Amino acid sequence: MDAVQVGQMQEMIVRDLMEQAPPGWTQVRAAATSIDGYMQFSARADVPGQEPDVMWPDTATIVTSDLSEAMYKSGKGTWFSMACTVEPSGEYHFTFNYDQPATFGDREPAEESWINDLRRHPRDWDNIPDWHLVKQRYTEDEWLASVQRYKDWLASDDQSPFTG
């Protein structure tokens, strides 16, 4: 996807957050973590004198789940987590984490999910963070071979789970 389409997706997220925010809100904060098709999304609106209001914006959640795929760049990969802040004026800011560990609270995905996420969104070896399980379990040549086996499996008619 190109930058214009990604920008349109971000604007859809912001628009939905603003529409779903409660009266009197002063800022909305959304965050998402996405690994191997599993995503955790949260949104909270600040309202003066109240506890932050937890929001459940359907469109923002769905579009965010597609955003990591849309932002994939060959060799660079895609983000592990993102944060978005929105002001009542409509001003907004997105931050994307490509390199730091991401957390899912008390529902961590299986270790294999971290590895499969990089098979789906391959990165050049130098762009894989040192903390990542891929760097702990594979040499560069082993990893490149694993990614190729995954691509070959995707292109095949094999219905069994990938065991790479």
TrEMBL record:
<protein>
    <submittedName>
        <fullName>Uncharacterized protein</fullName>
    </submittedName>
</protein>
<dbReference type="InterPro" id="IPR036170">
    <property type="entry name" value="YezG-like_sf"/>
</dbReference>
